[in-house]
Amino acid sequence: MIQLDNVHKKFGNLEVLKGIDGEIRQGEVVCLIGASGSGKSTLLRCINGLESYEEGQITIDGKLVDRKDPSIRALRTSVTMVFQRFNLFPHRTALENVTEGPIYVKGEARREAEEHGRELLDRMGLGAKAETYPTSLSGGQQQRVAIARALAMRPKAILFDEPTSALDPELVGEVLGAMRDLANDGMTMLVVTHEMAFAREVGDRVLFMDGGLIVEEGPAERVLTDPQEDRTRDFLRRVLNK
User: Global pTM?
Assistant: First the structure.
């Protein structure tokens, strides 16, 4: 579904992505791990067209990702993104946050969008919070609204950029539980995460990034319990011994 071929990205003279190759197949959950600054979030933003890339190409279902092309709007609705910091509209209720995209971007009828939005909030365990504003929701509840908002676009895949990193530890489980349910339903997911237990349990594959390159990849269980590369072993040793 998502194909990466020799993708390079620079910020000024700093090369952040140094030739990324890979693919995410339909229905697959791929977890992207690595230290801060290794290029993980930048890669997600290039896939979604939020950042341009200088060399190589990214395709989604065979269609080129080019943020300067008018087609990027349609591609962003087919591959949605959930961010670290929720990015909810504070002056909109939970339901309004979920329905904004379908109504104003996809042109859905308000009644249809609201009905679907309520179903999604119910699915996230937030049916009773539909008319609640973000400031009255916990961080975990806000992130589940953000997941419902991504689902409201009826995407083919969802990109998650460290969705639990801004949460208090006691709230992490409810968000990971919602993501686990999506995986069980067959949603294609690319997840930047530091939650190694989640990656091992839910991920089909793990990609380890370091210095703008994918250094190691393979089945989640194998990479996380028997890494082949020294840099992967060093990273996992630091993360798991915290």
Answer: 0.92
